[in-house]
Amino acid sequence: EVGVMIEDYADQIQPDLSDDDEEGLHDLTREDFAVDFKGSPAEGAPKTLIICSDETVSKVCKHAFGAQDVPWRVLCRRPEDLPVTAQRVPEQCTFRRAGDTVIATPKARLPDEVAGPIVRCLLEEVGDGDTKVVTLGMMPAGLFNTSDPSEERPVEPVVLALSTLEARAAAGSLRVFERPNTLTGVAAAAMSYCEIRHRPCLALVSLMASATVVQSELAVIIDAARTRSDWFPPVVDFDAGALLKDVRPKMDAMVYT
């Protein structure tokens, strides 16, 4: 069962730091970042914070949940002693809101050196201890490996899951995102943070058959959300064709979890 096995799968969560540190990035800590809400969010702490690994899954949330942009951003507190590249990294994070759910998305993949501090900032400033955490990502099926070569591979489109014990029920019957595959970036950072604090965190990874997204690959993400109403906002009536048109230009530069 997904939640029970999180300790056994700890090696699937890559550390936040990389050996290939970009100048200035490896020195960043949680204290270097803050969320600028453009005024206190009147709605209070969200029930769920969804952290998308890329703009593709963020647009799925935008269309499926009717999420609206909110003028928040992540700020670096000490830009004066950082290279320009490091200063600009956190400003690439955008926010949307759908009811009592907040969706945070980096516009480009966050370096592992920055993913940890920024995700911790999001979890501490956007939500509270009761906020459920979801990470959404996509992964080319060709990069997925089974632990046993003789084991049956998942048939895409499919959503795989890894969760903390507190999110065991939400993972339900979804197939485990099994080793030797590893979570990276924001998914790894969120799972690590929540695991040691006993907070509910659910990482969902959608396997893609090819670099060109098709409607069925988006549908499985939406279905996973629809059947987890305690974790996701209601799915609204939306134009599936408009969603597909909106996400396809992003696929050439897709960032996968």
Provide structural commentary.
The structure is a single chain. By secondary structure, this protein is α/β, with parallel strands linked by helices. Helix content is 26%, strand content 21%. It has helices at 55-65, 84-88, 112-125, 168-171, 185-196, 215-226, 240-247, and strands at residues 33-36, 48-52, 68-70, 73-76, 93-98, 101-106, 132-140, 158-163, 175-176, 201-208. The strands form two sheets. An eight-stranded mixed β-sheet has the order 3-5-6-2-7-10-8-9, with helices on both faces. A two-stranded antiparallel ribbon has the order 1-4. A hairpin with a 2-residue loop joins strand 5 (93-98) and strand 6. It is globular. It starts with 32 loop residues before the first strand and ends in a 10-residue tail after the last helix.
Quick recap:
The protein has 257 residues and is of the alpha/beta class.
Q: What coarse outline follows from CA principal-axis ratios? A: globular
Largest sheet strand order: 3-5-6-2-7-10-8-9
Encode the helix/strand succession as letters.
Answer: EEHEEHEEHEEHEHEHH
Main structural class: alpha/beta
Ends apart, CA distance between termini: 21 Å
- Rg, Cα atoms, Å: 17 Å
Which range best describes the helical content: under 10%, 10-25%, 25-40%, 40-55%, 55-70% or over 70%? 25-40%
User: In oligomeric terms, what are we looking at?
Assistant: single chain
The low-pLDDT segments are: 1-9, 14-21, 252-257
Q: What's the count of strands?
A: 10
Question: What integer is the average pLDDT?
Answer: 82
How many helices? 7
> Tell me about the biggest sheet?
8 strands, mixed
- Share of residues in strands: 15-25%
